[in-house]
Amino acid sequence: MEVVKGEVVSFQHVDKVYHSGTVALSQFDLSIADGEFISFLGPSGCGKSTALRMVAGLGEATNGRVKVFNQSPKDVIKHSNDIAYVFQEANLLPWRTVLDNVLLPLEIRGINKEKRKECAVEVLEMVGLKDYLHAYPRQLSGGMKMRVSIARALAAKPKLLLMDEPFAALDEMTRQTLQMDLLQIW
Ligand SMILES: Nc1ncnc2c1ncn2[C@@H]1O[C@H](COP(=O)(O)OP(=O)(O)OP(=O)(O)O)[C@@H](O)[C@H]1O
Ligand SMILES: [Mg+2]
C-alpha cells in the first residue's frame, strides 16, 4: 500500500455490500490530508454515512482498505482519542448538566479531575455556552444542544472530527449560524 505523507484518511478501492445485498460503496477511493475540511455531497442513499461510519470503525469494508492515520480505524479508536463523531441528534444525558455531559467521555477515558474540568470548560466557551455550564439539556434550544454535542466531541482534543449531518434537525437560520461557528472553531 502506498503511504502518503500527512494523509489522515484513505479509502483504497473500497466496496461495501450490506448483508441485504445493497451495494453502498463500489470502488471508492479517497485521500484526506492533514488540515483539510471535507464535505460529502450526494443524493440520499448514495453511501455518505456508510463511508463516514467506516472511518470511525463502525462497519468494515467488504473489499479494499480504509486507513486512518495509516492504521485500521478500530485500532485508532481502541488506543487513542483521535477520532470523534457527532451524530445527527445531540444525544445528551438529560439527568446530567451541560458541563457533566461534556465531562462524561473524559471521565470514561480516566483523565484526571482537574484537567478534565479545564478541557470541558474550554470547549464549552469555544461553542459559546460558558453561561450554561450548569443548565440541563431540557433548558436548552435545539441549536444549543448541538453545541454541547460538538463540545463533547472536541473535549478529548480529537485529531479527526467526523460529523454526519449534525445540523439537519435544526431550522435554516440556526443551521447557518452553527455552520459559520463551526468554521470558526475549526
Ligand atoms: N445497516 C444497513 N443494512 C443494509 N443496508 C444499509 C444499511 N445502512 C445503509 N444501507 C443502505 O446503503 C445505502 C447507503 O446508505 P447510507 O446511509 O450510507 O446513505 P447516505 O448517503 O448517508 O444517505 P442520506 O443522505 O439519506 O443520509 C442505502 O441504499 C441504504 O439503504
Ligand atoms: Mg446519511
Brief summary:
The protein is an alpha+beta fold. The chain is 37% helix and 19% strand. It has a 3-stranded antiparallel sheet with strand order 2-1-3, with helices on one face. It has a two-stranded parallel sheet with strand order 4-5.
Description:
- The protein has six helices and five strands.
- The protein is an alpha+beta fold.
- The protein folds into two domains: 7-78, P-loop containing nucleotide triphosphate hydrolases (Rossmann fold, 3-Layer(aba) Sandwich), CATH 3.40.50.300; 81-185, 3-Layer(aba) Sandwich (Rossmann fold).
- The chain has a three-stranded antiparallel β-sheet, with helices on one face. It has a two-stranded parallel ribbon with strand order 4-5.
- Magnesium ion is lined by residues 48-49, 164.
Features:
186 residues; alpha+beta; Rossmann fold; 3-stranded antiparallel sheet; 6 helices; 5 strands; binds adenosine-5'-triphosphate
Give, in spatial order, the strands making up the sheet with the most strands. Answer: 2-1-3
Number of continuous helical runs? 6
- Reported by name, the CATH topology of the largest domain is Rossmann fold
How would you classify the helix and strand content by structural class? alpha+beta
Residues in β-strands, percent: 15-25%
Q: What string, H for helix and E for strand, traces the elements in order?
A: EEHEHEHHHEH
Described by the principal axes of the CA atoms, the overall outline is globular
- Which bin fits the share of residues in helices? 25-40%
Mean pLDDT reading: 93
Distance between the termini: 30 Å
Q: What is the gyration radius calculated from CA atoms?
A: 17 Å
Number of distinct beta strands:
5
CATH architecture of the largest domain: 3-Layer(aba) Sandwich
Superfamily (CATH H level) name of the largest domain: P-loop containing nucleotide triphosphate hydrolases
Q: Low-confidence stretches at least 5 residues in length (pLDDT < 50)?
A: none
Quaternary assembly: single chain
Largest sheet: 3 strands, antiparallel
Broad CATH class of the largest domain: Alpha Beta
Number of domains: 2
